[in-house]
Specification:
The complex is a heterotetramer, with 2 copies of chain A (154 residues) and 2 copies of chain B (499 residues).
Chain A lengths: L12 E6 L7 H12 L3 E4 L6 H11 L3 E6 L4 H4 L3 H7 L6 E6 L8 H10 L4 E3 L5 H13 L4 H6 L1
Parallel strand pairs in A: 1-2, 1-3, 3-4, 4-5
Helix pairs in contact in A: 1-6
Chain B lengths: L20 H12 L10 H10 L6 H11 L3 E3 L7 H13 L6 E4 L2 H4 L3 H14 L9 H15 L4 E4 L6 H10 L3 E3 L2 H8 L5 H20 L5 E5 L9 H18 L4 E6 L4 H21 L9 E4 L9 H18 L3 E3 L12 H17 L9 H24 L4 H11 L17 E4 L5 E5 L7 H18 L6 H8 L5 H4 L3 H4 L1
Parallel strand pairs in B: 1-8, 2-3, 3-4, 4-5, 5-6, 6-7, 7-8
Antiparallel strand pairs in B: 9-10
The complex binds cobalamin (2 copies).
């Protein structure tokens, strides 16, 4: 965002989906419903979505953020190159969120979060995150690009 | 080997009829050629191996003995990305968990037949020293490796592979000596896939069921099982049982005679007991109606399949109560979860602990039955009415053919399931919990439930909305998705807070 | 201050009659002079403090509200040897355990009025940095210190002090602001002492009950409670309820109007629910018969009081099922244990975890009732017959006086409890578990249960002996003591072992 | 034992009881029943028994062993001087067993056992011990005084 940050009035577009071979759609769908209620335009790709489809959809819809769900544990394999794919597609600065059960097994959240930040996600959300928390984070990041500092550093 | 299987142009039209022997032989050849380990499958050798197993390592015998002795068996889920991890897991579940049935859950790449991705997952798991896959890549490892797992345990093994594409996994699993396989054409296609058509899913499972029948012809009974839990998200008993009946008809059509039915728990003592009883009863009723009067249909109850609380203590309550529900309901087995459920695949130890909690619960609730309770009878009647209305309509739409009827009914929304990822389904039906803790139907979509039944559901849900002071709308369904995962201070506010 | 209290020579003869005001005033003076902290007790200040407490910190209000709202409250046990440890414990139980009622369990020296030994225990605990006492030495610490505990929590506090000598502890506890006190003359004397006579035990509790009534006269209602769990070892419901009725009559005689009854769980869903209902019903029946028609008698269900298994998973099952039993039985509160039970006093964390497991179980079983089950009615009838036969005989032996009747009945074995350490009791009655998991009476000793009832018990137990292939003898009782603590492979043998 | 170890034929006498202010009688009673069945003469002092009563009874009955039960957690305070009291009463070599829940709280058994051995008990038994194990240990110790080596060392 930074440079091309737009007026708060414009309806922001968010691409959502569940990455990889993951079929867990319930949380993703409920999140989508909440985001729409909160005023966002949601482009919902549904379950079992390959990484490149997210990016294609984001380019096509000039999305402001991509919201990747991964519940089934293999997200760590599916998400590795996600930021690179974004950069290749010219989406250097697109806001990237990831949420769900992001690794296999019960692992310390701080470590998991760091792994996903290292992959280039602006924010990662732990298991069981409620929609309010997501909406609050989006508001923050769209208002003053909070993640900007860190993104600039990358 | 993409996500969507394109049917052969020369394929016979869809029907519930048994695949002829020669056609099936050709199908098997093609199937086994799809991945190198397919060549390891040797039916004669497999039959010999199964016959060499003691009774207590064959799932059909164990399930029948459980029925005879009035037992409720325990079975966990469990899969890790490498053979070593998987073996340690299965041994722990057998020995420390006293599991009566030991599982091998496959990973999600395998389930979607992305075998080369699974290969990478194995390598990564080895490199990092931890499982990067959410299950065991059985096809990649092949028959010989999988058989070492069966040899490592003193219980029957079952393959758990939530997929609409079970053709290779089942060949490998049965050849390795697994005597049970969970999955079905309707249930898994509607709940585990996005783009696969119901027709393709049914065909794929007709292959698997025909394969089980082939073993049967050779004198080896195998246990097939239907996963009625579907999307695991507040599935009302009738919807699970509807798919159970239809899948059972399809399996029996291929020659299967040992067909278990699974039901996710609603977490209501009375409703779950009613569901377990009616499930067995109605499957038998429809099977007999279709001329199958020798199918064994034991019912398995599943620990809560929706979202879990993060607190291990609350989770322990779900686990133990789940054992109570299964035992009181008279389930022949219960499939268990662990206190790690909200977070991720459990460690072998946590998994074994969940088994022991459940087993103790089963012991404590021995001999308790609800048959004499009027509300138990009421719920049974309700479920019967719901199931019959839909199944009769589905069969009608297929002119008596369960396969055709199902495909058409899904398209029409007559057969529907809540929260489905599959685009061939309307997924308009929406459940919610009522004020007394029963799962009810908030929105039936286009499912042809009787009017009076839906009126009853509405009454119960309006009562909840009234008590909670919230509108009678779809939010009742959304809050019901979260409900059980909420923290205790939300579920039962303290006296000072509430006052 | 020895273990055996010698009655004053000038003491009035034993009776259930209320202690006159002046006599009681003199008794209090003597009592409070027995240990330095007795001087801290100031009734006026105590009454003011109680009146300053919000409703949600007064146990009588909280119990009544629970009844009104159909809730089942949770309460743990818990005591450590120093004020610091005790405060941390009570805060943890309040905040992390969501306890509705927060306890202070006293140590066993205090219970036996060995206050100087308790003093040494405090010192040793401080020196070693761990609790050397199994509870909080409330008398040694005194009123001001104990009040800081009440101030540290946002719930009502209850004193748990299993003793036949509650006179100083209750003075200190009530003065500190505890609004509940567990204990009774019959129950605790027969189960917690060896040489103390039933008469002395009754007199000591008449003091305590009279003290509660004194607060009541000043406008402060306090919650008194009877520990019907007795020796905690397979107590059949009727025996618990018999002592409950008699203790309630004695308490009401002193002016108590808020009297809870505790029942240890039998671990049978139907039997426990029946016990809980009949307990409240019969206490009311006898109280009214004796002219007390305004006594509030809520029933509390207690987690399994016998020997626990060492496996934390099995213990979790007992905890959760205990929550289920309390909720389904309609108990107003449940007293919880932890997964450490078989080993020792739990850490604050383990204790809080037991509370949360139980609370979740209560949530899950909301709205389930067994009233319509015939076996529930059968068990209720059985318990009623047993209780009435004995209580009527006891009252008869006392010419209508519960105190006199009890003393004589204990001597004669008409009133008896299993596994008692007390020499004033015959302790010949012996319970055992039947084949369906109900607790039955194997040997009635000299208790005057109706013949047909005993015949029923015998039938059920012979059925168990037959099924297990063991003789019908006292070993049925001994194996029933161990039963619940056995490991899972013994309780439910695996298929390979059993086959 | 050592010096005055007697023929295996004589009926051995055991003093049992629950020490201190401890009322847990059930296990103690069941243990007593099992010991009698196994051929021992049991002098049962019951619950709530002060240390000196054990010793008095042992002297009076010329007992071969004292079996101390402690369940309620305060055994560590009650049992401290037990061996010394025995020595004072001339029972230097009497076999001393202790069993039950010997400390407050769940503590590592090896540490607890050591503490009680340091107090002079020949054997300490962990929570939940079954009577078979006790009888087997007695048999061992009465046959060849196994604990003798260690006792000699004291
Ligand atoms: C329901 C469920 C299923 C259903 C899914 C139905 C469906 N189609 O959606 C069924 C039964 C089909 C299923 C299948 C499987 N499941 Co599943 N499932 C669950 C379960 C119990 C609940 C998930 C759920 O719906 N929660 C409710 C919703 C509302 O919450 P949510 O999904 O967490 O989403 C919220 C937040 O996470 C957040 N969020 C979600 N996405 C995003 C994205 C962004 C950007 C942000 C900011 C936030 C966010 O907002 C959402 C709304 O609040 C969880 C465990 C749990 N949580 O209790 C396991 C779980 C996710 N499943 C798991 C697994 C492994 C599987 C299987 C592989 C089978 C197996 N081995 O057991 C298969 C997967 C098949 C496949 N190919 O994907 C594992 C994952 C393991 C891990 N990560 O280590 C879990 C954690 C269970 C476990 N402990 O083993 N499952
Ligand atoms: C039943 C019981 C009671 C009954 C006792 C009835 C009675 N009169 O006997 C009641 C309800 C009255 C009771 C009271 C209390 N109890 Co209590 N009780 C138990 C319980 C649940 C079972 C004990 C039992 O009977 N077991 C069955 C018998 C067969 O087994 P056993 O006693 O272990 O005995 C066997 C072996 O240990 C061994 N053994 C026993 N003695 C000896 C001696 C020798 C020499 C040898 C070799 C072997 C041996 O052989 C026996 C037969 O197999 C235990 C916890 C548990 N184990 O589950 C707590 C427990 C012992 N109690 C405990 C406590 C603290 C109390 C109280 C102080 C109340 C409180 N704070 O909660 C009061 C004590 C009052 C007092 N002054 O003593 C604690 C002790 C804590 C600790 N050590 O850290 C325990 C461990 C519970 C806990 N985790 O908090 N209790």
């Amino acid at each position: 965002m930074g440079a091309d940050s737009t007026s708060a009035e414009r309806r922001r577009t968010l691409v959502t989906g569940v990455i990889g071979s993951d079929t867990h759609i319930v949380g993703n769908r409920i999140l989508g419903m909440a985001l729409e209620k909160a005023g966002y335009t949601v482009v919902a790709l549904g379950a079992l979505t390959p990484a490149d489809e997210f990016i294609k959809a984001a380019v096509e819809t000039a999305a402001d953020a991509i919201m990747v769900s991964s519940l089934y544990g293999q997200g760590e394999l599916d998400c590795r190159d996600f930021r690179n794919l974004c950069i290749e597609a010219g989406l250097e600065d697109i806001l990237l969120y990831v949420g769900g059960n992001l690794v296999v097994g019960k692992q310390p959240w701080a470590e998991v979060e760091q792994r996903y930040r290292d992959m280039g996600f602006d924010r990662a959300f732990p298991p069981g995150t409620r929609t309010d928390a997501v909406i609050a984070a989006l508001e923050d990041d769209f208002r003053a690009p909070a993640a900007g500092g860190q993104k600039a550093g990358r | 080997m993409g996500a969507v299987r394109r049917p052969d142009p020369g394929e016979p039209p869809l029907s519930a009829a048994r695949i002829p022997e020669d056609v099936f032989a050709a199908m098997r050849r093609d199937n086994l050629a799809r991945w190198p380990t397919g060549a390891e499958v040797d039916l004669d050798a497999a039959v010999d191996f199964h016959k060499s197993l003691p009774e207590h390592k064959r799932l059909p015998s164990v399930m029948r003995r459980a029925v005879a002795e009035g037992r409720c068996l325990t079975q966990p889920r469990g899969g890790f990305g490498t053979l070593e991890l998987q073996m340690e897991l299965m041994r722990t579940l057998d020995t420390d968990g006293f599991a009566d049935i030991v599982p091998t859950t496959t990973d999600s790449y395998t389930r979607n037949e992305h075998f080369s991705r699974a290969e990478k997952g194995i390598e990564e798991s080895k490199r990092l020293g931890r499982s990067m896959l959410n299950g065991f890549p059985m096809v990649n490892y092949g028959v010989a490796a999988a058989r070492t797992l069966i040899e490592a345990i003193d219980k029957p093994g079952i393959v758990l592979s939530g997929t609409a594409m079970p053709k290779l996994t089942s060949e490998i699993g049965f050849a390795a000596g697994y005597s049970g396989y969970l999955g079905s054409g309707i249930a898994y296609t509607v709940s585990y896939t996005k783009d696969i058509s119901i027709e393709d899913g049914i065909r794929n499972y007709q292959y698997l069921d025909r394969l089980a029948a082939l073993y049967r012809e050779r004198g080896v009974e195998l246990h097939r099982r239907q996963p009625g839990f579907l999307t695991g998200t507040n599935i009302p008993p009738s919807i699970a049982i509807i798919t159970g009946v239809l899948d059972a008809l399809l399996a029996a059509g291929q020659g299967v005679r040992d067909y278990g039915l699974e039901l996710g728990q609603t977490l209501h003592l009375v409703q779950d007991a009613a569901a377990i009883q009616v499930c067995g009863e109605l499957c038998q009723e429809y099977l007999r109606q279709h001329g199958f009067d020798d199918v064994f249909t034991p019912v398995t109850s599943l620990h809560w399949m929706g979202a879990w609380p993060q607190d291990a203590a609350q989770s322990a309550a779900l686990i133990v109560y789940g054992g109570t529900l299964a035992a009181v309901g008279g389930a022949v087995s219960v499939t268990t979860k662990s206190t790690h459920e909200a977070f991720g695949i459990p460690t072998p130890e946590a998994n074994a602990e969940g088994l022991r909690m459940t087993r103790m619960a089963i012991y404590l609730a021995r001999n308790i039955r609800l048959d004499t309770m009027p509300e138990f009878q009421r719920e049974k009647d309700l479920i019967r009415k719901e199931v019959r209305a839909v199944v009769d309509k589905v069969l009608d739409m297929g002119d008596g053919d369960a396969a055709l009827g199902t495909v058409r009914a899904c398209e029409a929304g007559v057969l529907d399931i809540p929260w489905s990822p599959n685009r061939c389904l309307k997924s308009r039906v929406l459940p919610a919990r009522d004020a007394d803790g029963y799962l009810r139907i908030l929105d039936a979509g286009d499912m042809p439930f009787p009017k009076d039944v839906l009126g009853f559901h509405e009454d119960r849900l309006r009562e909840r909305a009234g008590r909670e002071g919230v509108p009678y709308d779809h939010d009742l369904a959304v809050s019901s998705v979260y409900e059980i995962s909420e923290s205790l201070d939300k579920l039962i506010p303290g006296m000072s807070a509430a006052g």
